[in-house]
Design goal:
Blueprint: H1 15-25, H2 29-41, H3 46-58, H4 62-68, H5 76-88, H6 92-105, H7 110-125, H8 132-143, H9 147-150, H10 153-165, H11 169-182, H12 187-199, H13 203-214, H14 221-233, H15 237-250, H16 255-267, H17 274-287, H18 298-306, H19 312-316, H20 320-324, H21 331-343, H22 352-358, H23 372-375, H24 386-394, H25 400-403, H26 408-412, H27 419-430, H28 439-443
């Protein structure tokens, strides 16, 4: 029994066998390097060309696979691999007809069906049309599919994508988590789960998703970078440096990864500054604020959605030139954005150290006040549920004193915050002798 995958001679009867080969190839550095040598030496024509294209997919070189495999469209394994390569490089229109054909040919196989639907979703999101126009159609199609498809990892992931397109974050996260419970081999699902969980402060969920994703070799650059950033946020600089180092080793000219690596290494030797830590916490809460919490014109909102800008943190990473370069994003939309950021002491293209310096947390801001000790307690002391914690964090609350500056009416006006969360928050505050601001106080 051989222990090394032989691209030139081993049978590749299905896409699943190709995935198994990828696991085998990336089990050691020697196996990966051997395949790289083999792929580079294979001629691009005929059967060897087909195997060369399949080898490119195994190595994660999707653009090259997409150039080699169209000549072998009659072969179902090559055809599906080509479609998956197109999806990886955002060539949705070319992937769609292949996936639709394979879905008709293999109605019991969930991957082509889910892939075709996701390609249609991506194509729609690239236009100016409202996402609901496609999500309602696709959701109806999913409801008409066999129960096995709806309960598969592919079906759950697709539902998550639809909810995310509609900005229904909690439901999207629930679907992504269900898909990951079914299969930890669904790369796109793990990435969407990690990215969305991280943006809304669910660090442990994001960490588990990214760790599972980078374990699926070859590790994706974006996943490694996001995992590194999350490790830094958690104060785990050595592990962050390891992630960035992996990216730099595979792409020595990646300036962003090199910069992040240098910062992480420097952070490993930094002394602990409690005031700085509190400012970082407050800034992270501000940056996690969803864009949907602000009043925006339809055009500005649609543009940001298509650019995958979901939070203030995503927004400050952009420059004015980058936003204005996007189709249909003009000066009016730019001024809306600048006004929103200005209200939080932020601006476009702002460096993180500058943003941290602009945050005023006040170590003992409630000194001399009644119940000062309770008011200065950190938010974590309340041990709130995820939904309630996310709401008060969105409001920029870092301490119990920050929370009681808000009224019940204000909290109930926040997305996904209902009576159950309000009762929970009241009870936890009462344990510290505190209560929310009354409506009368707010009016005064």
């Amino acid at each position: 029994m051989t222990t090394t995958f032989d691209l030139s001679n081993d049978a590749i009867p299905s896409f699943a066998s190709l995935q198994d080969a990828r696991v085998q190839v990336f089990s050691s550095k020697h196996s990966r390097e051997s395949l790289e040598d083999e792929v580079s030496n294979l001629p691009p024509d005929g059967e060897t060309g087909r195997r060369k294209g399949l080898g490119m997919w195994i190595l994660g070189r999707f653009a090259e696979a997409a150039e080699l495999l169209p000549e072998h469209i009659s072969d179902d394994v090559a055809s599906f691999t080509l479609a998956m390569s197109y999806m990886e490089v955002a060539r949705w229109e070319e992937a769609l007809p292949i996936l639709q054909r394979l879905s008709d040919a293999y109605p019991e196989e969930p991957r082509p069906r889910a892939g075709a639907m996701e390609a249609r979703l991506e194509m729609h999101l690239a236009t100016d049309a409202a996402p609901e126009e496609i999500t309602e159609t696709l959701r109806a199609e999913i409801a008409a599919t066999p129960e096995a498809f709806q309960q598969s990892a592919e079906g759950q992931h697709l539902n998550g994508r639809l909810f995310e397109a509609e900005r229904r974050w909690d439901e999207a996260l629930e679907c992504y988590e269900s898909a990951s419970d079914i299969s930890l081999a669904h790369r796109k699902n793990l990435f969407h789960l990690g990215r969305l969980a991280e943006r809304f402060g669910l660090d442990e969920t994001a960490l588990e998703a990214y760790q599972a994703l980078v374990a699926l070799r070859p590790a994706q650059r974006n996943a490694m970078m996001n995992l590194g950033i999350l490790y830094e946020d958690l104060g785990r600089d050595q592990e962050a440096a390891s992630c960035y180092d992996s990216v730099v080793k595979s792409s020595p000219m990646d300036d962003r990864a090199r910069l992040y690596l240098a910062d992480a290494v420097a952070g490993m030797d930094m002394y602990y500054d409690e005031d700085l830590e509190r400012k970082e916490d407050r800034l992270n809460q501000i940056l996690r604020t969803p864009i949907t919490d602000f009043e925006l014109s339809v055009r500005a909102r649609n543009c940001l959605n298509k650019m995958n800008i979901l939070t203030l943190g995503d927004l400050v990473e952009q420059t004015e030139a980058e936003l204005l370069a996007y189709k249909n994003f003009g000066e009016t939309s730019l001024n809306e954005i600048k006004e929103i950021l200005g209200s939080k002491g932020l601006r476009l293209g702002m460096a993180r150290d500058e943003a941290v310096a602009s945050v005023d947390v006040g170590r003992n801001r409630y000194a001399g006040m009644e119940n000062a000790d309770a008011l200065n307690r950190p938010l974590s002391d309340l041990e709130l549920s995820i939904r309630a914690r996310r709401t008060v964090e969105t409001l920029g609350c870092l301490t119990l004193g920050d929370i009681v500056q808000h009224s019940e009416e204000e909290l109930l006006g926040m997305p996904n915050f209902g009576q159950t969360s309000l009762i929970e928050l009241r009870e936890r505050l009462e344990q510290f002798g505190l209560k929310l601001k009354s409506k009368h106080d707010t009016q005064d």
